[in-house]
Each structure stands twice: as structure tokens, then as C-alpha cells.
Amino acid sequence: MMIKIVFVCLGNICRSPMAEGLMKKKVKDLNLSSHFHIESRATSTWEIGNPPHPKTQEILKRENANLYGKCAMQITKEDMIYFDVVIAMDQENVRDLSFMFPDYSYKISLLRAINPDRDSLDVKDPYYTHKYEEVYQILNVDLDLWIKKFRELLNI
Asked: Which is catalytic among the residues 90, 96, 122, 125?
């Protein structure tokens, strides 16, 4: 069995591609890549076709989690049908996704909701805060929790 995951943020150049790259690296390191299909998307059209933000690329390169050729894409109804789990970076993304695709709101989760020790439900957008390293630290912890949950679901 395979779990198909899409990470979603506003523009698909900072948080969601960072989550995509790090998650792919983590499951590869655990030799679990065959159990996961991982991508990322945007709720907006603002950055469509653009590569990840240079600071996101810098972190992904440092972590050996490069996303060569990645360009921002907006999420579609076809994506909502295809992916099993839609993981949003903040509550605004959840609201936007639920408004855009009300029939698929049951697939939407908030990334930070899985972490009982979180200080906030939102992964703040580093495009505005410039705190890319903080986003990396949050993702590094919370993605491990998601992997644990998925491994339990898949019994692997």
C-alpha cells in the first residue's frame, strides 16, 4: 500500500516545497520510498512556474533533499481526488482549501496539529518573516511525527 501526500502553502515556494523535499529525504533514508508519493502545491497562483525560494533551496541542499526542477503549482480538483492526505501549513491554507474543494475537506490536515508540544498551529510563512531556519526546525520535528503515524497506518 502507498500513501499519497501533498503539502500545501500559499505560494509553493517556501514551506510546502521544503516539507516535500525533507519528507522525501526522510522516507528515503528509512528505505520507505516505495510506500509514499509526496508532492507539494499552492493555494494561490502568485508563484506558478517559479522555483522554490533561494533560502528554501539552500536548506534543502544543505540537508541533501534537493528538489531539482521543482516549480510552483496550484492545487487542483484532480489533486484533491488523487492525494490521500492534504497537509496544510497554516489555518488560512486550511480555510482556502476547504472553500476551494468543500467535497474533499475530510482529506485536509494541519501540519502542526500532530504535535502536542507545538507552540502554534501555524507554520508561519518565511517569505514574510524571513525565518527559514525556524520553518526547517518545525518541519524536521513534525514530519517525523507524520512518518510515525503513516508507518502505523501502513503497519511498516
From this structure: 125
